Every structure is written in structure tokens, then in C-alpha cells.
Amino acid sequence: MWGAGDVLWRIMPGTWYGWPDYAEGKTVTNEDFRPPMKKSLAPLLASEPGKPPTPVAIFGVHASADGFDFSRSNSFGHVGEAFVAEFGDQAPTTGKSLHPVGFRVVRVDVASGHIEEFAANKGKNVGPASKFGGAGFERPVAVRFDPSGGALYVVDFGVMLMDRGGPKPQPGTGVLWRISRQ
Amino acid sequence: MAHKPAVSRALFIVGLLLALAACSARRGEPVVGPLALDDHLKRGQQLFDQHCYKCHTKGEGGMGPIINDKPLPKFLMRTQVRVGMGTMPNFGPKQISDDDLDALLDYIVALRRAEH
User: What is the ipTM for the molecules in this complex?
Assistant: First the structure.
């Protein structure tokens, strides 16, 4: 749906999270989701089973927030925050984005919903490392802390080229990153 | 080639805007470090996260344009928030009160000023 960001939910038993008539806790008729020059979608349900809650956090549209884990160790820091892999947009096939978004690991203060960049490629531009001829993230897809909590492992899908024909993943380019304070 | 003063001023302004626009928009914490936020700016950050982040991720742009490197005066930013533009929806006083809009705009200015 146009304009809908990925969300982080806190799951509570017995709660309706809004599908198919809500996104981000907002009705599909919200102006956020009306595509340019088009009408808003209409709700599908005759009656709603409840009122969806507000998400913990809303990520950038098209960022593709994927695997995440919580920091549990003071040796790493940011205890209690969620570290989330952002795979990155798949423009042009997934819709318009003025600027690339994602291609990094972010951390989320789940109490406030504030999202902060944690690990990303150097330089002025956002995007996969291969696009700018450097070394670094291509497309982070999952993260997990080691049992000690002192190191964060990031699964990187690798190079995935995009054109109007769709995704073109490049074999043999996936990597596993390890991030620690040392 | 000599320009008339008004033309020279216009060219200077355009050049300044272009030069400023060419600066990096990266404002993530690994780039500029943690921002020093008082209560007013923390409220602005909260509002930005709630209403703006998904399209203007920390001002760096995404589905929406970069907004943390443009030398726009606050009254123009205020107008755009209240009126909307293109695909950007408008946010009326019931969604963002005038006081909250002040905090939001001050936060955007703080992002703009964050040093690399």
C-alpha cells in the first residue's frame, strides 16, 4: 500500500492489529496512504473487531525492516533496544522513492519508538556498497547477538541488482559480519 | 562578462543554495554523533518520529525529499506542513498543534546544523 512503512509491533494476546483495513495503526483511508492522483482504498470489513494499537516504531517506507534481536549486554551497550536489519528499497519495481532507504542496521528504543542508525556504509550516499565502489553492507537481512551478548552478527544477503525486470541476486556475494566494541 | 547587481545577487543566492544542497544529508548517529536535545527538541524529535520519519528518515530523504540540508526558513517549512505539497499530506492543528509544530521545526533545524 502506498506510503505505508514497515512497523515494529509489540504483540499482545487478544489484540487485532488492523489487517486488512489498517496500516501503521491508521485506517487505509488515511491521507498518508492515498496514492498521487488516485482515490484512497476503501475498507473491506463490514465491522471492525477492535481498534488497532499504535506501533512501537515505524520504519522508512521501502526500507524493508527484517530480522532483529535485542541487546542484552552492557558490554555491547544499548541494552533493551532492538537492532533491526534494513534490507533496503527495491526501486524501481516496488514503487517510487526519491532517495535510497535502508541498506543498514538501525537500533530502536522500544520505549519511545525512536529509530537511530547504528551501522551503515561510509560516505555521503545511502545505498549498497557495490553501487559506490566501496566495501561494506550490501543488503543486511538479519541480525543476532551471540550468546554472550557482546557481539552482533549481521547476515548480509549480498549483491542484488534491481531493474524494471525485477531483482537479480548475484550468487556468491552473501557475507556474515561481526560487530563488537573491540 | 559583467552582470547587473540584481542578476549577480540572484546568481549568488542560487549558487549558495546549490552549494548547500550539495552537502551530505547524512545525519545518522555514526556520522554526526548523538544530538544534544533539551526537552523542547526531544518533543520535536518525538513528533518527527511520529509524523515525518517514514518519508524523511532523519531528514535524509527516502520516499520524501531530503529536508535536513535545505536552507528553508521556518515559516516556509511551517506552511508546507500545514498545506502539504504533492504527495506530502498536510498536517492541521488537530494533528500537530502550533506549539508542537514549533518544536518539530526546531528539531529539523537542529538536524540541519548537526556537524559531521
Answer: 0.89
- Which of A8, A64, A98 should one mutate to test binding to chain B, selecting the residue with the greatest count of B CBs within 10 A? A98
Same domain, A158 and A108: yes
Compare CB distances from A117 to B30, B66, B90 and report the shortest one's residue. Answer: B30
Question: Closest approach of chain B CAs to the CA of A171, in angstroms?
Answer: 28
Count of domains in chain A?
2
- Answer whether 0.90 is exceeded by the pTM: no
- Choosing from A12, A27, A55, the residue where a domain stops is A55
Which ranges of B52-97 does DSSP label H, i.e. alpha helix?
Answer: 53-56, 74-83
Interface probe for A, chosen from B51, B57, B116 (most Cβ of A below 10 Å), is: B57
Same domain, A82 and A151: yes
* Residue numbers of the domain that contains A119: 60-180
Say whether the peptide bond before residue A92 is cis (omega within 30 degrees of 0). yes
- 3-state secondary structure (DSSP) of residue A87: coil
